[in-house]
Amino acid sequence: MRSIKTVLAIFGIALFLMHPVARAQDIDWYDKGRKLLSQQKYDEALKAFSTAIDIIPLDYQSYNYRGVTRALKGDFEAAIADYSKAIEIRPRYAEAYNNRGFAHTRIGNLKAAQNDYTRALEINPFFADAYNNKAWILATCSDQRIRDGGQAVRLATKAVELKPGISSMDTLAAAHAATGNFDAAVDVQTKAIQQLMVDNKTAEVPKYMAHLRSYRSRQALLIDYAARPTTPAAQSTQKASLKARAKEAPAAPGEKTKIVGTANLPATPAAKPVGQAAPKQANPAASVKSQKPAAVKTPKPATAAQDKKKAATAVKAAPPVKSSKTVTVAKTPKPTAIPPARKTPAPAVKSLPYTIQVSSFRDPLQSMQVARKLSTRGDPAFTSPVDIAGKGKWYRVYIGNYKTLAEANTAAVDLKRRKFRYVNVTRKPYTVQIGEPIAQNNARELQSRLQARGYFSYSLPAQTDPNRIRILVGAFENEQAAAGLSSQLTREGFYPRIVLR
Fold first, then answer.
1. Residue range 182-239, pLDDT digits in tens
2. In a domain, 400, yes or no
3. Which residues contact 396 (CB under 8 A, 6 or more apart)?
């Protein structure tokens, strides 16, 4: 009798394990969804990401990528709901903000889109896709209440610095045209088309040629976002962009491979997750790159050879770049009856002594590569050298800057849930600051100089003026530990000083 019960029990267990729900967790549905997304199998990808969410209800990456999938299918309202859920789970998810901004753009809600892009950049000041997407709206919107060519030029220039490419150059050209500087617009657009030719991407040439013809005719791009069509044909550019993003995402140590958009040292949505961005061409799932709407209809070329020939002729005929025109704005006399309002001093920023170590390498280049990948995904990563007794010099990779141990521990729990192999909360109150605090738009040159010398810098708000930032290198337990790096930077021609983080 007992043997019969045993056989029945074993048979029941076997049936249970054969059930698809019971075996669901044998499959990494997130990874499967990513593969299906890259294969443009959107319906199957949608099911895969939904299954991943059923298994892990707080899987913000799957929510982000499901949003990317829905955006690619043209269901922007549902995509916004998924991005919002990802942000609810992980409030500092820059890629999801960027992707949601793209979806808002597609339905004509530009105010919400601009707010999302701004928030993405607050979280990740090195998020090229967010700069690009925000600049595109400001450069091309037909609504004069939103259109701002000057700001678009500044944002697009930053995007080109961070991520030189056809998409960012196209945006910069549109921004120049929005300010009336058509000579600069023609020059930048011509260079973008030349790059397409070099990369043998002739199928994309007609769209950019249409923009070039507009600038030569001294006409800026004007798009009525509120009246944009949402048919599959109208979304073809967006789809190509989202797919491209999904292929760009780097992965963190021990994490799922995610598609990323861009950032300071964080993660990205749309087709990039840790996200990535949605609008133009950016990383998807971790951060789906935003995609620009086509402003001018352009007929498809009969053959790739014809496209190449036309583009080459047009590029050849491009006139030399003239000096930028100065736009004169009439000055309105200031009233003298009303005294100027007093400026309220900004509150001082508290120090951020805690951080989280996630890896360590003997090779400084390897540590920089890992930190850069994490940054692209939106994780605020940085590196720091350390001398270990008996082991020599190592280069550690850290994520985040926190005021309290409790905040750091909360962030560490999230990293562990994301399957980072090593997570260690540590107190590193000192750092090496390069020069004095500067405006954020002036930081890129200094950071590029440091990177060229092999230093992976990061930035934090100035402690006395949150409107300016400090360029920092490393994180240390005490001033003595930071002294070696400070001396080395001095020899390299920089002006370092040891300060509290």
1. 999 999 999 999 988 888 888 888 889 999 999 999 999 999 987 655 544 344 343 3
2. yes
3. 357, 359, 360, 367, 383, 384, 385, 386
Q: φ, ψ for residue 383 (rounded to 5)?
A: -120, 160
Of the candidates 221, 240, 230, 226, which has an alpha carbon nearest to the alpha carbon of residue 138? 221
Last residue of a domain, one of 317, 333, 364: 317
CB neighbour burial string for 364-375, b if at least 16 within 10 angstroms, e if fewer: beebbbbbbbbb
437 and 297 in a single domain? The answer is no
> Model-level pTM greater than 0.85?
no
Distance, in Å, from the CA atom of 431 to the CA atom of 498, rounded to the nearest integer, reads 6
Q: Who contacts 33 (Cβ-Cβ below 8 Å, separation ≥6)? A: 45, 46, 48, 49, 52, 62, 65, 66, 69
Residues 213 and 280 in one domain: yes
**Rounded-to-10 torsion of CA 153, 154, 155, 158:** 110
Q: Tokens 């509150």: give the residue.
A: 347
Query: Which residues of 185-338 form beta strands (DSSP E)?
Result: 272-276, 285-287
Q: Is 444 exposed, middle or buried (0-12, 13-18, 19+ CB in 10 A)?
A: middle
Q: What backbone phi and psi angles, to 5 degrees, belong to 397?
A: -110, 125
Q: Edge to edge, what strands does the sheet with 469-476 contain?
A: 458-461, 469-476, 430-434, 496-500
Contact between 396 and 438 (Cβ < 8 Å): no
Q: Bin 492: left if φ > 0, else alpha if -120 < ψ < 50, else beta.
A: alpha
pLDDT tens, residue by residue, 375-433:
877 889 999 999 888 888 899 999 999 999 999 999 999 899 888 989 999 999 999 99
298 & 236 share domain:
yes
Q: How far apart are alpha carbons 134 and 116 in whole angstroms? A: 9
Contact 173, 157 (CB under 8 A): no
Structure tokens at 104: 């808002």
Share above pLDDT 70 across residues of the chain, in percent, rounded to a whole number: 70
In a domain, 2, yes or no: no
Rounded Cα distance, 335 and 215, in Å: 40
Which is nearest to 49 in space by CA: 16, 17, 85, 74? 85
Q: Are strands 430-434 and 381-388 parallel, antiparallel or unpaired?
A: unpaired
| pLDDT average, residue stretch 273-289 | 39
Number of structural domains, the chain? 2
- The CA-to-CA distance between both ends of the chain, in Å, stands at 72
Residues 6+ apart with CB under 8 A from 124: 94, 130, 262, 263, 264, 265, 266, 267, 268, 375, 378, 380
Q: Is 336 within the bounds of a domain?
A: no
Q: How far is CA 209 from the centre of its chain?
A: 27
pLDDT (tens digit, 9 = 90+) per residue, 448-497?
888 878 889 999 888 777 778 899 999 999 999 999 999 999 888 888 99
Instruction: Give the three-state DSSP class for 274.
Output: strand
Query: Do residues 295 and 222 make contact, with C-beta atoms less than 8 angstroms apart?
Result: yes
